Amino acid sequence: MTKIDQIETLILDIPTIRGHVLSMATMRVQTAVLVRVRFSDGSEGIGEGTTIGGLSYGPESPEGIKSAIDTYIAPALAGRDADNVNGAIQLVDKLVKGNRIAKTAVEMALWDGLGKRLNVPVSQLFGGAVHERLPVAWTLASGNSETDIAEAHEMIETRRHNIFKLKIGKRSVRDDVAHVARIKAAVGEAASVRVDINTAWSLQDARWGLKGLQDAGCELVEQPVPARYRKDLAELTRGYEIAVMADEALNGPEDAFEVAASKAADVFAVKVAQSGGLKRASEVVAIGQAAGLGLYGGTMLETGLGTAAALQLFATVETLHWGTEFFGPLLLTEDILAEPITYRDFCVDIPRGPGIGTTLDPDKIDFFRRDGGRTMTAVAGA
Ligand code: MUC
Ligand code: MG
Question: What pTM did the predictor assign?
């Protein structure tokens, strides 16, 4: 039996190409927690657990993710059957409540290791890919309408993106709606315009906001009100034609069931990290499908590693009505993969190759690691 031998973690801080202005924080750097699992037969697996804006997006910080893995998850899994990923998931769920991003990073590395040992992509472990590429959105969040419009035109001209998610909720509702209307008018029918409020609005704000956004030609609004206000989300879903997408409200399959049962969204933004891993994300997808909801592949702005893992799973999903936003590596000044993920013709290619289908660039890992050490390059060699 191949066993789980050792689980190591590492924090990377990678600058973003420009300030990424969200309602709750402005990101100038993205922090990722990398995991490497070593197995008794000499094989290895790599995973990533990433959040957004420190503790401003959700309850897990990068430091907390690392600590949960080092202190609780890694010791519990040492010596266990490497090929039984479900067994590992069950054990960790029993011993560790919450901490979905930490669980995700380790589970991802277990799937990667299993895929590499079997010489198949992770998509095959989830039943097989039905897509070779997926549509991919870009987020316009420079904080300035003119800059966003120039960025949108460039993306359309270079055929990189024709779906734009605008981050709003920081300014007044009136100013935000005017900003969205200007961008929609500038791109016209050449692009789909959507917005993400990241929970910043009250129900009253949202009533005005959704009406204005709808009139401006915006197609979808993501998480306008706080995650726990499911009834408010349901009211907004019922009350307007514009599609309402749940993001922060979806922390795993149980939330997915509650949101679907209370008709609190038209669309699920399915995030691997927020779901608690690839398997739990596949369960969120199944609940959305069974409820007849629209599906969208969401991101925590992971590096190429977490992005490639998400692509492996979403390649197996029959219909992604709203596409994906797996552009994380493009927001970073440098990606950490030896072979970058390919973006072309408004789509992202699903990486081929065993496991997650990617390898890390050891020099980049050394350069961006927070501890500045040069000894754990083995993480990158996985
Ligand atoms: C979010 O809330 O959806 C996804 C794209 C982006 O720019 O930020 C994220 C987070
Ligand atoms: Mg969101």
Answer: 0.96
Mean pLDDT of 195-204: 98
Ion ligand 2 neighbours, Cβ < 5 Å: 196, 222, 247
Bridge partners of 194, per DSSP, are 165, 220
Q: What is the mean pLDDT of residues 210-232?
A: 98
Q: What are the distances in angstroms from CA 192 to CA 244, 297, 317?
A: 15, 16, 22
Residues with CB under 6 A from ligand 1: 52, 139, 141, 196, 198, 247, 298-299, 301, 325
Query: Letter for the amino acid at 341?
Result: I
Residue at a domain's end among 74, 98, 119:
119
Into how many domains does the chain fold? 2
Q: Do 176 and 258 belong to one domain?
A: yes
Give the separation between CA 241 and CA 373, rounded to whole angstroms: 53
The closest of 256, 277, 356 to 106, measured between CA atoms, is 277
DSSP characters over 275-292: HTSHHHHHHHHHHHHHTT
Residue 374 lies in a domain: no
Task: Indicate if 96 and 184 belong to the same structural domain.
Answer: no
Tell me, yes or no, whether 373 lies in a domain. no
Categorise residue 15: left if φ over 0, alpha if ψ from -120 to 50, beta otherwise: beta
Query: What is the spatial distance between Cα 107 and Cα 104, in angstroms, rounded to a whole number?
Result: 5
Q: Which residues contact 375 (CB under 8 A, 6 or more apart)?
A: none
In a domain, 311, yes or no: yes
Give the H/E segment covering residue 147. Answer: helix 145-157
Asked whether the predicted pLDDT for residue 379 surpasses 80, the reply is no
Please tell me whether residues 113 and 155 are part of one structural domain: no
Residue 381 has pLDDT above 60, yes or no: no
Tell me which of 24, 196, 327 to substitute to probe ligand 1's pocket, judged by most ligand atoms within 8 Å of the beta carbon.
196
